[in-house]
Amino acid sequence: MPRMLLIGACLGTLALAAPAQAQPSSNSDVSFDAGALLLKKPKPGLPDVRAQPLAWPRLDPGAVLCRTEADLERLAARRGGEAVDGPIDCRIIGTPTAISIVQRSGPGKVEVKISGANADSSSGWTDAWLPDKAPPGATSASR
User: Fold this and answer.
1) What confidence score (pLDDT) does residue 63 get?
2) Residue 56: which residues within 8 A CB-CB, separation 6 or more?
């Protein structure tokens, strides 16, 4: 008889326990760890996003692009306070613009050609500082 009571007590305990469940679904909010279900708490704030590599070489916002070398020279003279005759055909770059370097004519004169997705196949002259070597994290504009 005590054996019967022991078996009955075991069966009664099993009957009161939570019913068996299948393995948890592949829901990303639930994980199975050491026999227990643990809820993963989302990280507060925005998710981490990797920065895209910057095109190189490029003209940054604020750089000047002139149609001809003479326009660039007249712009430099006007900036220096000299009186200059005629219009100066230059524009200020508003967004980072991928370029390719055509030629260098001294430290302050570089002929460039606009390249990349917004290329209008125009070339011009700039006085922007464009080092020979790209900074870390930059990629070729030809990508």
Assistant:
1) 96
2) 134, 135, 138, 139, 140, 141
Contact 90, 66 (CB under 8 A): yes
Q: Return the closest-CA partner of residue 127 out of 64, 49, 35.
A: 64
Give the pair of three-digit tokens for residue 94. Answer: 């508003």
* Residue 125 clears pLDDT 90, i.e. is over it: yes
How confident is the model over 45-103, as pLDDT tens digits? 887 777 776 788 999 999 999 999 999 999 999 999 999 999 999 999 999 999 999 99
How many other C-beta atoms can be found within 10 angstroms of the C-beta atom of residue 58?
22
What are the CA-CA distances from residue 99 to residues 67, 69, 73, 116 (Å)?
14, 17, 21, 7
Q: Return contacts of 87-90, CB within 8 angstroms, 24+ apart.
A: 90/64, 90/65, 90/66
Separation CA 77–CA 113 (nearest Å): 24
